[in-house]
Design goal:
Elements lengths: L3 E10 L10 H9 L8 E2 L6 E5 L6 H21 L3 E3 L16 H10 L8 E7 L3 H11 L3 H8 L4 E2 L2 E2 L5 H6 L14 H13 L13 E3 L5 E8 L4 H23 L9 H14 L4 E3 L6 E3 H11 L1 H7 L2 H14 L2 H12 L2 H12 L2
Antiparallel strand pairs: 1-3, 1-4, 1-5, 2-3, 5-9, 6-7, 8-9, 10-11
Helix pairs in contact: 1-2, 2-8, 4-8, 5-9, 8-11, 8-12, 13-14
Length: 360
């Protein structure tokens, strides 16, 4: 069974005003004093964000428990510094980014300017048996990634306004020069050559700053999915992990059987990604096979059918279907936030309720 690890970026907010607070350094210092947290939390670009990474897990129940534990620990360390954590992919209230200390982060802020805006994502790592299998997976999962964006969409507000997007984080993130969908590579050599060429331009510092939607991890023997908003609740993150692992397993089987990747162009994949960010689960998505508009429900069903055998083999099929049905019925994080705003007419109250839901 392939292992899965999840990285989540949580927003640090004032528990009263709901505004982001630049206290990541203080929260990390608290975590370093706690033996149970020392390897969980990581420094990130923004000082208003606290990131954690789970250990690799093969069972989804264990992964769910660890995500919950990490969120609770993050909340405890934040509380000790006078703030709270919220699983929000953008701040509903106005904010300017505050950058963490360090030469690398200073270079990024100076180089990329206005593109370095505060957003919080969820990254899923799935184990692969070497780079050859990893590149084969990267080539074959490309059309299905926008559906993951739609399922996880949790960023409708930006600088105090409704953006009309479900995942505005995706639009902010797409401004980074190395982010987005990629062409079919066909071999490890082609993948490595392109990464080396990108670094050689001086536009990125190293391989870790090549932010493809899905990539070989520079640190672990994994394929890393980078298209999702941080999910409002932990069950959403687990669904992403289930689907990502099933996509990897399905793609690896196709490669082993000699079945090639879909020949979709980067231009069309960008349109599919934009549509997923705009519509989420509330409108139409581009079908991953035909790249023609279909109701979001149909695109989600197509994904579940595509990875159905892999989900069944891992024992996740029933849970994945139930979780997907719940999202389609109750709404993703973006729909929840808009519903809360409609009930309260207060973005501060939206943040307060999302703080509570982060720990459910």
């Amino acid at each position: 069974m392939r292992t899965v690890g999840v990285e989540e970026e949580l927003l640090l907010v004032d528990p009263d005003s709901g505004e982001p607070k630049a206290l990541a350094a203080a929260a990390l210092a608290r975590a370093e004093q706690d033996d149970t947290s020392v390897e969980v939390f990581e420094k990130e670009l923004y000082d208003q964000m606290l990131e954690f990474a789970t250990r690799p897990q093969s069972g989804m129940a264990e992964l769910r428990a660890e995500i919950g534990r990490c969120r609770r620990e993050a909340a405890r360390h934040a509380r000790d510094t006078g703030c709270a954590v919220a699983a929000l992919a953008t701040s509903p209230l106005p904010v300017g980014p505050s950058f963490a200390v360090g030469r690398r982060y200073r270079w990024m802020a100076e180089q990329y300017g206005v593109s370095t805006r505060l957003v919080c994502g969820c990254h899923v790592h799935v184990s692969v048996d070497g780079d050859e299998e990893g590149v084969a997976v990267v080539d074959r999962v490309r059309p299905w990634l926008p559906v993951l964006t739609a399922l996880s969409a949790n960023s409708p507000f930006w600088q105090g306004r409704d953006t009309a997007y479900n995942s505005y984080r995706s639009q902010v993130w797409s401004r980074w020069p190395s982010a987005g969908p990629v062409e079919v590579f066909g071999s490890v050599q082609a993948y490595r050559r392109q990464v080396a060429d990108m670094v050689a331009t001086g536009t990125v510092l190293d391989e870790a700053m090549v932010y493809y939607d899905v990539r070989l991890s520079a640190r672990y023997p994994t394929v890393e999915f980078r298209v999702a908003d941080v999910c409002l609740d932990a069950d959403g993150a687990v669904l992403l992990a289930m689907l990502a692992r099933a996509l990897v397993e399905t793609a690896a089987r196709e490669w082993q059987e000699g079945r090639g990747p879909a020949p979709h162009t980067v231009s069309l994949l960008r349109l599919a990604s934009w549509r997923a960010a705009r519509s989420g689960l509330t409108g139409e998505l581009l079908h991953p096979v035909t790249l023609r508009p279909v109701p979001a429900r149909d695109a989600v069903e197509a994904l579940l059918e595509h990875v159905g055998a892999a989900l069944a083999d891992s024992g996740d099929l029933e849970t994945a279907r139930a979780s997907s049905a719940s999202l389609l019925r109750e709404g993703n994080g973006a729909q929840v936030q808009r519903r809360l705003y409609g009930e309260t007419d207060s973005l501060r109250e939206v943040v307060a309720e999302c703080v509570r839901r982060t720990l459910v």
